[in-house]
Each structure stands twice: as structure tokens, then as C-alpha cells.
Amino acid sequence: MIDHGVSDRTGRRVALRDIDADNWRAVADVAPLDDQRDHVPALAARYLLLTTREDTWHSLAVCAGDDVIGHVMWARDEDGSYWIGGMLIDGAEQGRGVGRAVMRTLTAWLAEREGCEVVRLSYAPGNTAAGRLYTSLGFRPTGDAEDDEVVVELAASAVVPL
Q: Less Cβ crowding at N or C end of the chain, within 10 Å?
């Protein structure tokens, strides 16, 4: 479990847990708001399949207390950078600061990993909410694109310790 003591705006502690026999169904059923489906899949099940069929990504369950409320995944690229992808917070849980808590928790954990110099992620240019979140956390555009998405990065040394 990855738990840095970060809470959402309602005071619930947000932690990241490995996907296991007890939580995989709850993670698979995580669904965004309808208007977000231009940017993310209809269910987190797609991300789970990706991580089980390929060796690149590692899925984590997003939990608030004992409840599974989302999905996020991470990877290490060939150049040594770490990537965050597939963050999906259940529509009913949005607007409570869960995404910010996930990003703070995961970036702090990744920054502590051996050889981590930079954390990157990409998002659809039209996903302005994601852009605002990542910018507010210190991510800066690299000028690169990944599958028509904006690539941003955060130096590990700039991650605020928790």
C-alpha cells in the first residue's frame, strides 16, 4: 500500500493499493462522468486489461478509507523516467480533491524510487480540468506529444515531500 497520509477535501485518507482478488472487480467498475468519456474510457476495466496484457504499466486501486473509488497506473520508461497514466476517479467521487490527493501521493512515491529524476504524464488538450490540476501541482509542458496528448513533467526534486 502507498499511503502518505494525504486526505481529500472531505477528510478521507486517500491511499493506493495493489490490485488483488479482493478489489479488482470494484476497480474494474469505476466509471467517470459521462462528459469525460472523450478523454478516458467508460470503465477502468480497460486499464486493468492493459496492465495485465502488457509488461509496461502497473495498476493501483485508489481508495478512500476502505472504499475503492478509482484507478491509476504507473510505469518506468526506457529512458529512466517514470510515467503516470490511467487515472480515473469514479464520477460520484469527483469534486472532492481525490485526484489531487492521488497525484500528490503517487508523485511522492515515484520520486523516492531509485533513479527517478522526472515524472511525466500526458493528457488530452481538451481536458482543461486535468491541465489545471497538473499545472497546479508543478507539472510543466515538455513540448512533446504522446498519441496527440500534451506531455508534461515534474522534476523529482520539485516534488513536495509529504
A: N
Q: Do residues 69 and 90 make contact, with C-beta atoms less than 8 angstroms apart? A: yes
The closest alpha carbon to 101, from 116, 89, 118, belongs to 89
What is the pTM (predicted TM-score) of this model? 0.91
For residue 63, the cross-strand partners are 15, 68
- Rounded Cα gap, residues 52 and 35, in angstroms: 27
The span from the CA of 66 to the CA of 103, in Å, is: 19
Nearest to 126 by CA among 106, 149, 102, 105: 149
d(CA 84, CA 115): 16
| Helix axes of 128-136 and 98-111: crossing angle, nearest 10 degrees | 50
